[in-house]
Amino acid sequence: MRHRILVIDDEAVVGLSIKRTLAPGGHAIDVYQDPHAGLQVALSGGYDVIFLDLMLPGAHGLDLLAQIKAADVSSEVVIITGHSTVENAVQAIKQGAADYLSKPFSPDQLKMVLAKVWEHSTLIRENAALRQELELNRGFEGIIGESRAMEHVFGLIKRVAPTDGTVLVTGESGTGKEMLVRALHRLSRRKDGPLLACDCSALAPTLLESELFGHVKGSFSGAIAAKQGLFEAATKGTLFLDEVANLTMEIQGKLLRVLESKRVRKVGDTAEREIDIRLIAATNRDLQELVREGSFREDLYYRLNVVPVYLPPLRERHGDIPLLAGVFLDRFCKKLDTPVKGFTQEAMAQMESHGWPGNVRELRNIVERMAILCEGERIELRHLPPEIRHASPVASVTQLPQSWEDFKKLKQQVRDSVVEDLERRFLTETLRRFDGNVSRAAEEIGIQRTNLHALMRKYGI
Question: Which domain holds residue 341?
């Protein structure tokens, strides 16, 4: 199999030696003597294997290795060292290196290390694919749900996925929009192509523009090498723009031009290149409201909203909470090797009465916490977090009081709990509307910012 190989080594003879040894086998090899330029290229993720020198001018190979691994780049890294010590090798492998080579090395040693590293990488990918396939056998393309609301979503995915139509996925935070996007890609005609994602809220506007469209060398300060943008990298596949509501008006305009012309131009370049992608966008905000406010382009909204898919919150998925909780518990118990086998009837009734403002993500995290902390075989009412244990007490009342006085006390407890539940949901929804901006939220609902902070502390928001 032919690989894309990157060599970062300040000694020209090392790069030349690797090229002479491996290029005849059909491998594509790029060599960088400048460690900083090499790192930028490595972070693009376009290489199968990176040969990285340990001792570099102005940089240390272990520092570069840490940055490559922190960026979640899939490339396998082989450390090259002229200071062959067990300590260096162990430290490199602890930080994620696949193997190491000691200078000087022979062509046979180089080929043997490459074959060994790639065999190990292939095994890991096959195991990951097998685990994914097993997960996909549960539910619809890995999405768990049997409620009528989710059946509607599944039916829509089946109809939309085989087309190239642009899809806008909406829904509250934590509902599983990224899983839905992955299902759309797996069921599409582009399933053998890449699925690349970009969180539009995670990067500054200049960096986001470069991430999406790419840039040429020298186009701005720090652009020490050309970079391919996601629109080009996703050719024949799917590009997922998450939190698209956070795009600036300037980038919205550039995105609209790309979608209309099917062509992209890198930052600092004059030439345009054709693109062939399927675009899926997602947001937890109301784009129509943003259009009315003037912070989102109406023409771009209609370009993105060709096929709208709404992912309902967990509170609207009647009957799915026990199913999801059971799947999560089974998964975590196997992972943690704990003896927990299920939930008591009272605990599950209380969980079903909870509003789940954090949706499926909140349910998964809480089930994991309970799987860790529960000391018996069943998760009981006492194991539930306070915000769930005290929610909607009507559902957990198993025995009515025998006297009027006790009944009056129960009524007051129910009233207090309902008010607290409504207050918590009101605060959560308000903060969601304003993307967690406490000052704007307080001004909108008409209370002091300090009072809003106090309420947030009260409910652990």
Answer: 316-396
Please tell me whether residue 142 adopts helix, strand or coil conformation.
coil
Provide the pLDDT for residue 177: 94
122 & 190 share domain: no
**Nearby residues of 15 by Cβ (< 8 Å), 6 or more positions away:** 7, 9, 29, 31, 33
394-400 long-range Cβ contacts below 8 angstroms, 24+ apart: 394/353, 395/349, 395/350, 395/352, 395/353, 396/346, 396/349, 396/350, 396/353, 398/346
Confidence at residue 32, expressed as pLDDT on a 0 to 100 scale: 92
> Are the C-beta atoms of residues 69 and 97 closer than 8 Å to each other?
no
DSSP 387-445: HHHTS-GGGG--S--SSHHHHHHHHHHHHHHHHHHHHHHHHHHHHHHTTT-HHHHHHHH
The mean per-residue pLDDT over the stretch 244-255 comes to: 94
- Structure tokens of 386? 């306070």
Beta-carbon count within 10 A of 418 CB? 14
- Distance from C-alpha of 413 to C-alpha of 409, rounded to nearest angstrom: 6
39-53, 76-90, 289-303 — which is least confidently predicted? 76-90
Structure tokens at 244: 């698209």
CATH of the domain at 268: 3.40.50.300
Using pLDDT thresholds of 50, 70 and 90, give the confidence band for residue 140.
confident
Closest CA to 244 of 206, 209, 284: 284
What is the total count of domains within the chain?
4
The reply to whether 363 and 430 lie within a common domain is no
- Cα–Cα distance, 231 to 258 (Å, whole number): 9
Are residues 93 and 110 part of one domain? yes
> Taking a C-beta distance cutoff of 8 angstroms, is the pair 267, 226 a contact?
no
Compute the distance between CA of residue 28 and CA of residue 12 in angstroms, rounded to an integer.
17
**With contact defined as beta carbons under 8 Å apart, do 73 and 43 qualify?**
yes
